[in-house]
Every structure is written in structure tokens, then in C-alpha cells.
Specification:
Helix content is about 45%, strand content about 10%. With about 325 residues, the protein is α/β, with parallel strands linked by helices. It folds into 2 domains: about 5-50, Arc Repressor Mutant, subunit A (Orthogonal Bundle), CATH 1.10.10; about 65-320, Rossmann fold (3-Layer(aba) Sandwich), CATH 3.40.50. The strands form 2 sheets. Strands 1-9-8-5-2-3-4 form a 7-stranded parallel sheet, sandwiched between helices. Helix 5 packs across helix 6 (about 125-130). The longest helix is centred in the N-terminal third of the chain and has 19 residues, at about 90-110.
């Protein structure tokens, strides 16, 4: 082996590292080019690593999602966060499909016999319903959390199809909620809520063991059904803007700070008070960058116990709202 001065050794190590890592040459090819032995090349590579001339990083695809989970859970004090790995380049429709598949599989691990599952219908829960994995349960029930009728249709076909998929998948009894999504008058809602048949469903909602829902938002890449299906009128949108509304859960709206009290439109909504989502075990499924603002507001309002979210959306949430995000993370 030829002897190297410190300067020569440094230059030779850098040259070997460039040929090996940048040009993908074998140690044998490098030895021929530099007219040294293969063992000399190996020693120079080792020296390059020891001297800090080469920085080798292993990128574990599961590492970043786990970090995001911890940051979100620690910041908002929620019980569990599931970040679903998905390449950003595939687009938001594919993000939703992968999150829905994950959610359908996860639901089988937490929903069982003798349980009542409350579901808020919408684009996300509809997608989840298509990926359900069959599981036999006994004495279980599925209850619809909010009405689906609007001025253009009853909405029953859309909502009932979602509920029946869950019901059939688990062999559970389905309880549909045949009322409008939004009443024209708050007093009409208050009167109907006194009827025995409606009170039975409202009581059942309060008895739920588990809630499954998403966050609705106006400008989502995959539009929320309540905003795209003719459920709101122009005056309603003006009211939402005036109240600084960030999103909705089960067609009940909440503000940027997570509060939901004294919002006039909520007085006409058929969805349950958002206090229910603070009290019960709820799994909130979110996918899409336009939902980040609403997700942040819902987290601030303590409106979920668990969160399932795609990786790009989780990353945007952390980058935009959580100062604890590590600045060295590569995106």
C-alpha cells in the first residue's frame, strides 16, 4: 500500500467517496482507476466515514409518520394519532382512499358485540364503508348521528346506503335518522325533538360507545358532501363567514378557536351537540390539505379522542400550527 501524507489521504478519501457514492463504481473499478489495491480503497472509504467526510442517512418510511403522531398527540393531548403513510405526489383522492382503507381495518379492532356505533354520514365515512372488512358481531347497533334531507332531496338514499353498509358488515341493527339536515326554523326542530320516535333516536345517540366521523370543510380537494350536495343556501354561507367557522362535525359548526356555542345555524342543525364528541370515544378521520384549518380548530376544541390522518395533511398541520416541529425534517 502506498503511503499518504495527511493531505494526500484526505484528498484520496474524498475522491474514493465521490467515485463510490456519486458514480456507483465498485471498489474494484476504483482500485483500477486509482492504481491502488481494493483493500486500500476500502480503508479510504472507512476513513472518509470516520472523518465525517461522508454522511450516510437511512430514510425509514415509517419514521416520519411516527414522529408526526407523537408531536400531534403531545401538543393536543389526545389519546391516539394514526398517521397513514402516503406519497404526496399521488393526489388527495388517493390519500382519502388509503386513509379509508386503514380506518376500515382499524374499526374492526375497536368495534365489537354489544356496542353502539354512531356515524356521521359524509364523503369520508362513505369511502370507509366501501372498504369494510366483514366481522360478525352480536347485539350491536349502528345509529345515524345527523339527518340527511335538504331542499333538493330527502338525502335518505345517500345516508342510508352508508349506514346499511356498516350494518350489514357487522350484522348490526341500523337506526336511520329521517329528518332534514338543517331545519328552516329552529322552533320546528325543537318541536320535533319532543316526539317519541325522535327522542328514542336521540337517546340512542347519547348511549353510543364509539363515534366515527370526519371534519367537513367548504373548499376541500375532495368536497365534503354537505357543501357539494345542496344542503346550504347563500344566507348560510354568509353566516358561516360572519361566525369565522372553520368546519363542521355531523353538520354542527365550530369556530377557529374550537367553540361552537351561539352559532345560529347550529340551532337549526339536526346533528348532536359537539359536547357528545368531547364525552365519547370518537375516531375522527381526516384527509386533505383544505381540512387542516378545521382539524386544528377541532383539536383545539377537544372534539376528538383519536385521529386518523394522511401523512401530507398531518405534516401541513404540524408545519403551520405547531412550533415544536423539527426544522431539520426533510419533506
Amino acid at each position: 500500500m502506498p503511503t499518504f501524507s495527511d493531505k494526500d489521504k484526505l484528498e484520496s478519501a474524498i475522491r474514493v467517496a465521490r467515485l463510490y457514492y456519486y458514480q456507483n463504481l465498485t471498489t474494484e473499478a476504483i482500485a483500477r482507476e486509482m492504481q491502488v489495491s481494493r483493500s486500500t480503497v476500502s480503508r479510504l472509504l472507512s476513513y472518509a466515514k470516520e472523518a465525517g467526510l461522508v454522511d450516510i442517512r437511512i430514510k425509514d418510511p415509517s419514521e416520519q409518520p411516527r414522529q408526526l403522531e407523537k408531536i400531534i398527540a403531545d401538543r393536543f393531548k389526545i389519546e391516539q394519532v394514526h398517521v397513514v403513510p402516503v406519497p404526496e405526489i399521488v393526489g388527495e383522492a388517493e390519500w382519502l382512499e388509503r386513509v379509508a382503507l386503514y380506518s376500515a381495518n382499524y374499526l374492526n379492532t375497536i368495534f365489537d358485540s354489544n356496542m353502539i356505533l354512531g356515524i356521521a354520514w359524509g364523503t369520508t365515512t362513505s369511502t370507509i364503508s366501501k372498504y369494510l372488512q366483514h366481522k360478525d358481531t352480536y347485539h350491536s347497533q349502528i345509529v345515524q348521528l345527523n339527518g340527511a334531507g335538504n331542499t333538493q332531496s330527502t338525502g335518505i338514499d345517500y345516508a342510508s346506503e352508508i349506514m346499511m353498509r356498516f350494518s350489514q358488515n357487522y350484522g348490526a341493527r341500523a337506526h336511520l335518522f329521517p329528518v332534514p339536515t338543517f331545519f328552516d326554523y329552529a322552533e320546528t326542530k325543537r318541536a320535533l325533538w319532543k316526539e317519541g320516535s325522535i327522542k328514542r333516536l336521540l337517546d340512542l345517540q347519547q348511549q353510543t360507545d364509539l363515534l366515527l366521523y370526519s371534519i367537513g370543510t367548504v373548499n376541500a380537494g375532495v368536497p365534503s358532501h354537505v357543501y357539494s350536495g345542496g344542503y346550504l343556501e347563500k344566507r348560510d354561507y354568509l353566516e358561516l363567514e360572519k361566525e369565522n367557522i372553520a368546519g363542521d362535525i355531523a353538520t354542527v359548526f365550530f369556530r377557529e378557536n374550537g367553540s361552537f356555542d351561539r352559532i345560529p345555524l347550529n340551532e337549526r342543525s339536526s346533528g348532536p351537540s359537539l359536547e357528545l364528541f368531547r364525552q365519547k370515544r370518537g375516531v375522527c378521520i381526516v384527509s386533505g390539505l383544505a381540512k387542516v384549518r378545521g382539524l386544528h380548530a377541532a383539536l383545539k376544541g377537544n372534539l376528538m379522542r383519536e385521529l386518523i390522518v394522511d401523512e401530507p395533511t398531518a405534516r401541513r398541520l404540524v408545519e403551520k400550527y405547531i412550533a415544536a416541529w423539527l426544522p431539520t425534517q426533510e419533506h
